[in-house]
Amino acid sequence: MNETTSIHQKRQQVRRLLDDSSPADAPTAYYALFHSPARSALYTHVNGDERVQGFVGQFQTGIDLFRPLITLVCRDAETAADLMAEALTPGRPYILFANLNQLPLVGGSLRIVQHRVLEIFRLDVGRFQPEINVLVQQSQAPDGTPRCAIESGGQEAVAGVNWQSPGFAEIYVHTDPGARQRGWGTSVAAAVTQAVLAGGRIPVYLVEPDNDASRQLAASLGYVDTGARQVYADVAYVGHPRAGANNRR
Description:
By secondary structure, the chain is of the alpha+beta class. It has two domains: 3-118 and 231-247, Aminopeptidase; 125-221, 3-Layer(aba) Sandwich (Aminopeptidase), CATH 3.40.630.30. The chain is 26% helix and 37% strand. A hairpin with a 5-residue loop joins strand 6 and strand 7. It starts with a helix and ends with a helix.
């Protein structure tokens, strides 16, 4: 059995734990179900009734070439610990990107260096009003996703897509400090939002709760808080907690 076939079969199992039509699951579902199979590895636990109890995924991304991204959905801490022992290397650093409800399950296995909790906003299409700004330059990123920018006098505002699945796309916005308060960020974000919609996907936007400017930008375009939370954390795998308990005896 080749690796691609194996990952395909495991993705069929993982689908039972995720709702890829829900914005709350969309960030995790992208990596678990749609990230490049050649750069993905899934580890699943199936009980005696052939019901999947959890998964841990490890993914090579452009976020950090030296630290794989990991995500998981597990029913309990024991399942999470067993799967991480299978998937991860003790002492190695990783990026944890998962629903916040998974964070309490990993404390015995992961040393969390720092973490951010991100609010998941989803576009309310009925509230979105396209904006026309002749300064916006539209192009495509190397992966074919839309990219929109305004550049003048060495200052830039740019918006694009971090990832996209069949149903969703996560947009990002970055504005140079010298270009703020000009409306550029809103203009490029609106242009990317419109391009994502034209591609048949629903835009989502992940933002830290204390980033008032970013939250206001999202609200002005019609994005609404779903109530779901995603954690992004710098972590190191310390090993199975049961092994540590045995060593202390």
